[in-house]
Design a protein that fits this description.
This protein has one domain: Alpha-Beta Horseshoe (Leucine-rich repeat, LRR (right-handed beta-alpha superhelix)), CATH 3.80.10. The chain contains three helices and eight strands. It has helices at about 40, 120-125, 145-155, and strands at about 5-10, 15, 25-35, 50-55, 70-75, 90-95, 115, 135-140. Strands 1, 2, 3, 4, 5, 6, 7 and 8 form an eight-stranded parallel β-sheet that branches.
Length: about 180
């Protein structure tokens, strides 16, 4: 688990302190596991972090020198203000997080990718707080209709007049 780390379906709240024994850990993904304290991540060169956070405290990630991607799910409201100080943050998925103040996203001047729910996007677009350097966006709702997605894309400033929908199954040459 020195370069890539994944914790899967561990019961209860996971203690990340043992990860400090992996000083070259670059990717940490907690899949269906919950952490309460991200302090151990602070000293690791983690670039990609996917975590479900129990208490909603991101302060231990402040100014993290290596972090480039965060996929955050929360069980409580979270203040994302500490994300402003992460110098290389390029990708952010908050679609599973309860974020009371999404306007902070406008201060993420190097953010390239953002994934939010329809409700979160509506809030962000209404407040006109979309990160200025955004080049890719995801509408993360399983039940979104094509009309909903086109309305969202239009509000982002994308041209939707020639949009089309394709469904089907992709088969490879060996199938």
């Amino acid at each position: 688990m020195d370069r890539l780390g994944g914790l899967h379906r561990l019961p209860g709240v996971v203690d990340l302190a043992p990860l400090t024994a992996a000083p070259r850990l670059r990717r940490l993904h907690l899949n269906r596991s919950t952490a309460a304290d991200l302090t151990p991540v602070r000293e690791l060169p983690v670039e990609s972090l996917r975590v479900t956070l129990a208490d909603g405290d991101l302060t231990s990630l402040e100014a993290h020198p290596h972090l480039t991607s965060v996929d955050l799910t929360t069980t409580a409201p979270v203040d994302i203000t500490p994300l402003r100080t992460i110098p290389h943050l390029r990708g952010l998925d908050l679609s599973g997080a309860d974020v009371p103040n999404l306007s902070v996203l406008a201060d993420l001047l190097d953010l390239r990718y953002l994934s939010l729910t329809a409700r979160q996007w509506t809030t962000l677009l209404t407040e006109a707080k979309v990160p200025p350097t955004l080049t890719a966006a995801r509408l993360a709702d399983a039940n979104t209709t094509l009309d909903d997605a086109l309305t969202w894309a239009s509000r982002l400033g994308l041209h939707t007049e020639n949009a089309f929908r394709v469904t089907g199954t992709l088969k490879t040459a060996g199938e």
